[in-house]
Amino acid sequence: MPLFSRLRFLAKCWLLLASLSFSLAAQAQESHVKSWPQSFRPSTQAKIVLVQQGGGGREFIYHTENFALHSLTALNQRNLALFATTAESVPSVIKRLPLPLLGMPKDGRAKVYIFPDQDSFVAAGGPKEAAGYYSGRKQAIMLRADTFLSPPPPSGSRLPPKADYGLLVHEFTHLCMHRDLAHYPTWFQEGVAEYLAAMHETGGVYQFSKVPSSIKRRIKRHLPNDQDHIVLPGIAETMALSSEQWRKRIEQGEAENHYRSYGTSLLIVHTLFHGGSKRRAATREFLAKIQQRPPVKQADQALIPLDERSALQKRIVDYWRPRGLRLEFSSP
Questions:
Q1: Which of 1, 253, 280, 309 has its CA 20 to 30 A from that of 99?
Q2: Where does the record locate the signal sequence feature (predicted)?
C-alpha cells in the first residue's frame, strides 16, 4: 500500500475509534439507569475546604469533590455547606437520568468563578444583566454573588436576602454538560438547565414526582407580572436562536423579559423528557448524534422538524391550560 494511502487509512481508523469512544462514554452513563427517577436526595452533606486564603488582591479558593471555587471575597460561612451540597448534587442527579447528558470538564476540578457585583462580572466577560454565565473557553461558570448568595429582598419585604439556589443548579448543569455543550442548540442546553432548576427543592434535593407543578411554579416565579396569560416567544423562534442572539436578548432586553426564552425552552424540554416513550427515544437518538465526532449537523431538525413546531406549540398550550398555566406565544 502506498504511503499516502496507508496514512489516509490510518486517519480514518483513528476517527472511527475516536467516535466510538465518545459513543461508549456517553452510553456508559445510561447503561445502569433505565427509568426516570422519582426523587433524589444527597446521602451526606458535601465537604468544602478553603485551600487558599485570599485578601489583598489574592483569590479565596475553595474545593469540593468535583469543583474549585474562586472568589475575590470570602464566602459567607453560613452558606458554604449548603452551597457545596447543592453544587455536588448536580452531577449526581444528572447521572440518575436515563439520558447521556453528563460530561464534566477534564483535568481536575471544574472551575467556578464568583464575583461580588455586576461590574467585576462583566469585566471578566459575563453578559451585562445576567446573573450567571457558562464560558466554554474557560471551561468554567461565572456567578454574581450579589444575585446568588445575597440577592436583594423583594420590594417592600423586611425578610433577609435568600440565596438563589435555583440559579446555582442552572449554571452547574451547564458545567456538568461541558463535554457536548458547544454542540447542543442553545434552547436545549438552557431548557435542560431550567428543568433541573425547576425540579430542585432545597439543599440538593430534587422531586420528579410532581413535574408539572414544579415547572408551573418556576415559570410564574420568574414572570410575576404576567397575570392573565404567561407570554412567551414561540417554539420555532426560540429554537432558531443562536447563543449570540440569546445573549443579546439578555443584554439589550428589558429585565422583566429576560426569562421568557428560558421559559419556552423549559416547556420544550419537558415535552421531550415527559411526552411519552417516543419523545424520549427521539431525545436519546438526538444526543447520540450530537455526541458523534464530528457531531451530526442540525440534529434537532429530526428531533422536532420545522413543519411540526407550530402543532407542538398548540399542544403545549392545550396541555398546560388545565394545569394552571395559561400560555400565549408571541410568534407562530
A1: 309
A2: 1-28
Asked if residue 261 belongs to a domain, the reply is yes
The reply to whether omega before 294 is within 30° of 0 (cis) is yes
Q: Is the dihedral of CA 308, 314, 246, 283 positive or negative?
A: negative
Tens digit of each residue's pLDDT (9 = 90 or more) over 294-331: 999 889 888 999 999 999 999 999 999 999 999 999 98
Q: Is 219 a residue whose pLDDT tops 90?
A: yes
Please check whether residue 10 lies inside any domain of the structure: no
Structural domain containing residue 260: 33-329
pLDDT in tens, 60-99: 999 999 999 999 889 887 788 899 999 999 999 999 999 9
Residue 7 lies in a domain: no
> 66: Cβ–Cβ under 8 A, 6 or more apart, which residues?
87, 88, 91, 104, 109, 110
Helix (H, G, I), strand (E, B) or coil at 38: coil
Over its C-alpha atoms, the chain yields an Rg (Å, rounded) of: 21
Domains in the chain, number? 1
